[in-house]
Write a structure and sequence with these properties.
Layout (H helix, E strand, L loop, with lengths): L2 E7 L16 E2 L2 E2 H9 L5 E8 L1 H9 L11 E6 L4 H12 L6 E6 L7 H14 L1 E7 L4 E4 L5 E5 L5 E3 L3 E4 H7 L12 H7 L5 E4 L12 H8 L1
Parallel strand pairs: 1-4, 1-6, 4-5, 7-12
Antiparallel strand pairs: 2-3, 6-11, 7-10, 7-11, 8-9
Length: 226
């Protein structure tokens, strides 16, 4: 099995309320992006890495020793991102399809707590079934709330899962799916594009620690677990 990794790192992360893009915030001597890349460095079958970047992130990577965050066996490149995450991923996919691999992993730069053992399990499931994403059942009571803060009722959580990344696709699936991939959209979930195209997405129970750095308080949580 040979894999390629696409990392979405072109977003601004406005909800983090920081002057820099959230993927460039330093934590224990490395940026969030570098911590994320480091989690994949030891996976021997990941041969190619493509990071979709904004101009600011690209400038940082040109000056930083990014090679210390990836494996010696991994070839690294950047691609200028799109207006939205969907556009960024499509641009990276077009570049990565020029290379030879069996599966592609699409991951958020702001998820540095991903566990390599989860990546291995999801990858093998995707190779067999076509598409597999990590997730975990939600723990909390879910309420629908109006914009002015009024509860509109409790939702049934029995079949509701939180979905994480990396979302992994077999090559034949993603090649056919590329024609259905929007140039730009507000979707934050790659597997939903597959579902809209009529494909079945498999979900594998994974660590619920794999949160996305979204709000300022997440930084304290991540610092304790990295």
């Amino acid at each position: 099995m040979t894999g390629s990794l696409i990392v979405a790192a072109a977003g601004a992360g406005k909800r983090v309320q920081h002057q820099r893009p959230k993927q460039l915030i330093q934590l224990k001597g490395r940026t969030i992006l570098e911590h994320t890349l480091k989690k994949f460095a030891s996976i021997s079958w990941i041969k190619y890495i493509c990071v979709g970047v904004s101009p600011e992130v690209n400038e940082y990577l040109q000056k930083s020793p990014v090679q210390t965050s990836i494996g010696a066996h991994q070839k690294f490149q950047t691609v200028r991102g799109g207006i939205t995450r969907t556009g960024t991923i499509k641009k990276c996919l077009i570049e990565m399809l020029k290379k030879d691999w069996d599966i592609v992993l699409i991951h958020d730069a702001a998820r540095p707590l991903v566990k390599p053992e989860d990546v291995e399990a999801i990858a093998h499931a995707a190779l067999e079934k076509g598409i597999c994403v990590p997730g975990a059942p939600v723990r909390d009571t879910l309420r629908k709330v109006s914009r002015d803060g009024i509860s509109l009722g409790t939702l049934d959580r029995s079949q509701v899962w939180s979905i994480f990344t990396p979302q992994i696709f077999r090559r034949d699936i993603i090649e056919n799916l590329l024609d259905h991939w929007p140039d730009e959209s507000e979707s934050t979930d790659d597997a939903s594009i597959a579902e809209k195209a009529g494909l079945q997405v498999h979900v594998l129970r994974s660590s619920s620690w794999n949160i996305k750095f979204t709000f300022p308080e997440d930084l304290t949580y991540m610092e304790k677990l990295l």
